[in-house]
TrEMBL record:
CDD domains: R3H_sperm-antigen (cd02636). PROSITE patterns: R3H. One of its GO terms (molecular function) is nucleic acid binding. It comes from Leucopsar rothschildi. This is SPAG7 protein. Residues 115-139 are annotated as: Disordered. It comes from the Eukaryota. InterPro entries: R3H_dom, R3H_dom_sf, R3H_sperm-antigen, SPAG7. Transmembrane segments: none annotated.
Length: 181
């Protein structure tokens, strides 16, 4: 009974702390919403429960929120106003633990665009022809000439002795039925 009472007291204390924390976060979030020159706010590192409370508060307030940081001790929440929602690049920078620099990001975006345009131009001109730069026929032109193959193709005739034997070449002129009988 004594232990149960102590547990109950701890749970109530825990619950009270969470309620107080939520109130504090609601105040901070409303201050953030009223701060005009602030598109995003980074909160101090906090534990999982506190982060989930903050995410909930942000969602209720109509804000976008993300958690960043690798280990449990250093994970923190960042809250963004909807009109300043972060781009994928911005999120990636925070995930890598870097500061987001819009000027550098814009420069990187321009470089990527330029590379894409160059790639497109290369595709329009067609790829470089694969294989050796010279034609193997040129190598043997002195032996076969340039139109030997065409002449050979013109003079070629079907071999009459190949495949089906024409009636003219048959010695036995009986039909199949006659031969069977």
């Amino acid at each position: 009974p004594e232990q149960a009472a102590r547990m109950k007291k701890l749970q109530e204390q825990d619950k009270r702390q969470k309620v107080e924390f939520r109130k504090r976060m609601e105040q901070e979030v409303s201050q953030f919403i009223q701060a005009t020159g602030e598109p995003r706010r980074r909160f101090q590192p906090m534990n999982k429960i506190e982060r989930s409370i903050l995410h909930d508060v942000a969602e209720v307030a109509g804000l976008t929120s993300f958690s960043f940081g690798d280990d449990e001790d250093s994970r923190y929440v960042m809250v963004f106003k909807k009109e300043f929602a972060p781009s994928d690049e911005e999120l990636e920078a925070y995930r890598r633990g870097e500061e987001w620099d819009p000027v550098r990001a814009e420069e990187r975006r321009r470089l990527r665009e330029l590379a894409a345009q160059q790639e497109e131009a290369e595709l329009e001109h067609g790829p470089a022809p694969p294989g050796p730069p010279n034609d193997y026929k040129d190598k043997y032109r002195h032996l076969i000439g340039s139109d030997a193959a065409k002449a050979a193709a013109r003079t070629m005739e079907a071999n009459k002795a190949y495949g089906c034997v024409p009636v003219a070449n048959k010695r036995d002129t009986r039909s199949i039925e006659e031969a069977m009988n």
